[in-house]
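Continuing the batch. This is chain 6 of the set; chains 1 through 5 are on the previous pages. Same settings as before, nothing changed between runs. Recording input and output for traceability.
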Amino acid sequence: MNNTVENNPQHVENLNSIAKLEKSGFEGTDVDISTALFEYGLAWQEIGNEILFVYGIGVNDNGEYIQFDRCSFSKNIDVESEFDWGEFEEVMQFVGTTLEEWRKYPLSHKVSDLLSYYGFENVFGSSYWEGFQIEE
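Output for chain 6:
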């Protein structure tokens, strides 16, 4: 496989602007990718059998996300097994649904809910670099 930047959708050069993310088909917690990333800190794209998540790791003085990292999960993961340490009943109360309904949600929605409740380090792991910026 050719490992050039062009052939690697996870390379930060392919993720560092809203225009590039929109062109690649990223979706987010808001229909507007800028809002999804800078206010909510999460966007994603399905790539084959995985979902690539771009998530906020640093905020400015206004609470807007300004530093990002990325992580991918298999579309087939069992969220409850993968995050077996989670208190799912508490998460359900936080997001306002039942576990039975939540189990029907797509992976991106489940990850968004867990991220909102537990934060990025618990969901995606620690980020050991300064991350990257995304141009508006």
